Amino acid sequence: MGKAQPFAPSVVVLTEEPRVLEPPDLSLDGILRRFPGLAAVEALGITGSTAAGWGNPYSDIDIYAFSDTECELPMDDSVETWRNEDASGLGRVNWMGRYGDALVDLKIWPRAAPRRVLASFLDGNDPELIEVGYMMQDFIYRVSVIQPLRGDNFFADTRRLIATSTYPGALARQLKVSAENRLNDVAGQLQAGDTLGARLAAMSAAGFVADCCLVLAGDLCRSEKWLLRRLDRTPACGITVSEYCTLVLDGPQQGESYGDYARRIAEWVRATIIRVESAVLG
Prior knowledge:
Blueprint (H helix, E strand, L loop, with lengths): L27 H7 L8 E5 H5 L8 E6 L13 E6 L5 E9 L2 E8 L3 H5 L16 H11 L2 E4 L1 H13 L2 H25 L3 H22 L10 H7 L7 H9 L8 H24 L1
Parallel strand pairs: 2-5
Antiparallel strand pairs: 1-2, 1-6, 3-4, 4-5
Helix pairs in contact: 6-7, 6-10, 7-10
């Protein structure tokens, strides 16, 4: 057996994080000073948590641009850039790097991207469930909440395209089916005595049905971490933050077993599905 080699890991700091973060100028003029190559794009806006009002000092700044021409982007030690495309051939340019103290995630899409992503939900098409992957679902949400810096008409037309498509209805149906599948898991796990599995399955069912209610109320966000913020800003969904926390996130009540806790959540999920079923089925 050979002699053990010493383990001496090292860390190379490419860009040191400042102790006090100053938010960058997110006006059109400010963005164009950092990204002069975006001056010719047809549409440009801020999206993600910053646009939703949920950003924090360490949040990325998400920028979407739409153009059919090549854009020259700044390059420095903080930057990574690459191109990729989905299975349909829809491509985009990705740029990640620093703008002042903030990290920017910039994506440049072709102008036809919204219509291409929504194609299976337009012109009378109404699939029972969705086959659009998570990345494109996230794209649809982000263009629905974008804060335009340029191209107001482009983004208004895109929001109308989403609203008149059958995408929201198909997404709601998919979430309802996912919640029902988790309820089946809960029933089987409880019968098998797997109360730990049943607890998690019930909590998952609750997340799906809450998401379904939010989609029906017009909130298309796809990130689980924002569920409570979404409930807080969307009272029309019929579920309050207090209700969801008490029923799902606060855990078993005093003296309540994991199995009874799972049953309580499952009953709430079932009642919520019944409440919204007519809206889901259209």
